[in-house]
Predict the 3D structure of the following.
Amino acid sequence: MRLHRKLWLDYYVGGFLHAVLKPCVVVLGKILRRNHDLKSCSSVTLLKLMGGGSLIIAYPALLALKRAPGIRELRLVTTPAVQPFAEILKVFDEILIIRDDSIATLAADGCKAIARLFRCDVVIDLEPHSRLTTVFSLLTCARNRVGFFTTISFWRRNLATHLLFFNVTSPVYRFYDQIASLFSGHVEPFGECIHEFRAHFEMPACNSGRHQVAVAPCCSDLARTRMLLPAEWAIVVGRYLAAGGGTGVDVHLFAAPGQQNEVESIRKQIQEKFPSAEVVNHAGRTSLQETLQLLTTAEVLIAIDSALLHCARLLGIRTISYWGPTAPDTLLRPSIPGHDTVHYEKLSCSPCVHLADRPPCNGNNICMRLSVEPDRSDSREPCWVVS
């Protein structure tokens, strides 16, 4: 299914099911009076259907949850798009997949997952903006249902047994850490998490004598206003290559299979500007595991806000990133000093992701233009008028 269809289903179908189920839930809660003490939970199930990057950001908290006293099993319910990111973390004992390519597969796999989880210890909903995930958690009849609520998701009250306030202007990783603390999990310093994550990858030898530069120019369909134009990638990559002379360099472009044509346009622009560099389009040709294996040989990753950026930070690789519709201070956990170079021009409309149902600029993401060239002549504060 396309993204807009998923969002439509979540809003309208999820809203209808909330209205139908909530009175029953409130009455049954008063009658059954179940014990909702989280300290007695030994099996924990997390629900994350969109955004592989969010799982990567949550890795320190997931690691703490995995090691928490009394937790014997950590399970994840997710979709095929997020599954590869879940697998590389090596923290889940079981991963249940809900296919979302059609309404039929979504419903069928959802019912199977509910049957598998029926009356489990706890379900943790990591989707703070979704209605259907709240319904899913409820239908499992889990003894404990943990979730987030925002200023507008008041409808989650009485549907979850434990709610944490999710302030969209604060760092998201702090809310994941709160989940770990509910189960007495201790979140290790980021440097320790880097060491743990890198241990899953063999460090290949790179004896070519050439500099290895990695580029992650794409993101998921959610908030594609994060992306730069091919000509802008030629500028930002070229800026880095020019500083090193632009010779003896291999540039590796990574993206998902469906983004191969977009990446090819970027490859041609960079190759034309730096003909002595070897520019390779890996989009759709390497698995995520293979991509990260190649990434370990790079001296730097140049990226926008994407899952690969957060993976690179977990690998301890130096990063240069460009931001606009999302804000770096809400997504980047403090890491090794000097390892992350961030380009971000704070406009009054930024960040807009999760704060507006559609970008106020309707895709004319001047925030990304300014992250590349902050001294542009049209860098005055925009005034968006939505009709």
